[in-house]
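Continuing the series of single-chain predictions for the mutant panel. This is the parent chain; the variants come on the following pages.
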Amino acid sequence: MAFPLTRMRRLRRTGALRGLVRETQLDAGDFILPFFVTHGSDRREPIAAMPGVERLSIDHVVAAAGEAAALGIPAVMLFGIPDHKDDDGSGAWDDEGIVQLATRAIKRAHPDLLVIPDLCLCEYTSHGHCGVLRADGHVDNDASLELLARTAVSQARAGADVIAPSDMMDGRVGVLRGALDEAGFADLPILAYSAKFASAFYGPFREAAVSTPAFGDRRSYQMDPANGDEALREVALDVEEGADMVMVKPALPYLDVIRRVKEMTRLPVVAYNVSGEYAMVKAAAAAGHLDERATVLETLTAIRRAGADVIITYHASDAARWLQEAT
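Parent structure:
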């Protein structure tokens, strides 16, 4: 029915009415909070490109994880800053590596909090690439799979609740599923970074994780930002290999991909609201161009509306507090 019988503003008249018919709900339970973990004790290293985010020693990560849990955030993601790197990234699968130590410490202190270590080699390799290199300088896909499998099993032994491979090697989900099952971790789910684009929005993260490639770039394994159909193929292959959840990364430039992935798979879809997206909002808010609270909550709601069930975001703690204040 057309105007005047239909008046769309009727249900927008008051806050209570708007809340009653709101289609997309945002809750702290939708968030995963990432941490950058470094060796030592009582260390807090601010990250210039990401105001409010720091590299933290394990003691501070444990405390911050507890604060996140108290806000209703159900999960944290860990990125390790090792004290040693080599060509193979051996620190990634070291049972006494930084992520493994942090995982055990968080699970001891907060057993109900989900701990999701990022699974990749780039933070641990001397060259900064996500796999081992061939003599010609290209990443060797199949040789990297064995090392990723070792890392997955090591993270599982440390108490990880979810395995989250971000490397974008072909076939890695199936290899990890087989390695985890063989090691007795058949019940451990895999969250695959399935549609991970070679994005300009990762810049601040690479400063934070000290993981910028020493040469070249990652376009031979991360996806071309121009391709949407290819993203669906990547996701379908990961699902076929045993992924329990799938991810689209970054979030805001790829809302269309999030929607298509959700409609295609009906699996839990995770979106990563990445460092560059975070840094843009922080910079604009600091300059007085945006209301940070309103912008962040609108952004996260849009990501949920697009089809994401879960959002990895550096805004998680602030957003959780703002949502509490609104109730």
